[in-house]
Write a structure and sequence with these properties.
Layout: E1 17-20, E2 23-28, E3 33-39, E4 47-55, E5 66-71, E6 77-84, E7 88-91, E8 97-98, E9 114-119, E10 125-130, E11 141-148, E12 151-152, E13 157-159, E14 167-174, E15 177-182, E16 186-191, E17 199-205, E18 212-218, E19 223-228, E20 234-238, E21 244-248
Amino acid sequence: MNNEEAENSVIALKSTVTIRGSRKVAVNPGSSAMALFSIDTKDPTELTMIGQHVDTMGDIPRKNNIACLGNSGAQAGIACFSMNYRQGLKPLSEFPIVFSLNQTTQPVGPFNTFSHVFFNQDETMLFTTVKGGPIKKTTGFLSMLPAQKGGIGTQGIRSSTPGTQALFGTTIPDFNNILAKDAAFGVGAATASTNGTPAIVHKTTIGSQSATCWAAVSPMRKTAFVTDIGMDNLVEVDWPVVRFSRIHH
């Protein structure tokens, strides 16, 4: 440690490392690369790269064997790759699915960047949350693209969720029900129907928050744990009604 301030992180996206079974996909934003690894079942600290790393163009469904990620720079978009457990990752298309984020390379965040790229539980839809921001007066939105075995459709739905502004990390604990974190107020539960009308059904304002960003759901406890970049607290809320439960220090 040299007591110097850390450089701004370009990772304003959840799940840069994602594990499914004995496979792991990892993104390296410093070199704009992504790689697929196998995990030794007897020694999980032993990782072996499968094939070679690829240029980024993540969430990993088991059924469709597709890995997708978001690039938040000047050439912003969602890129998807097929996962071959012998040869590694291969691009599904020559060009990414374009998102107009009005960004630069390196991106200036965390606002107006991708937050999370993830599949619903039956892996028929690819969801992407994008943060809006007060500086550029932009509104965040949820993107929904159809997913199939051959790839991801380019024609989908982009809809702003009423009551949200800066959507950060998200997860789908139940079928098409999304736990969403918003730096503007705290945490909420939203429904994500295929007709393009996502809506907040439960909302909790975390009064002491600085910027609520990431969370994970515990199905056994029926609660969600929420983190804040400006505080050293772990806030626990009930799920799926999203009521404040307790703070862990």
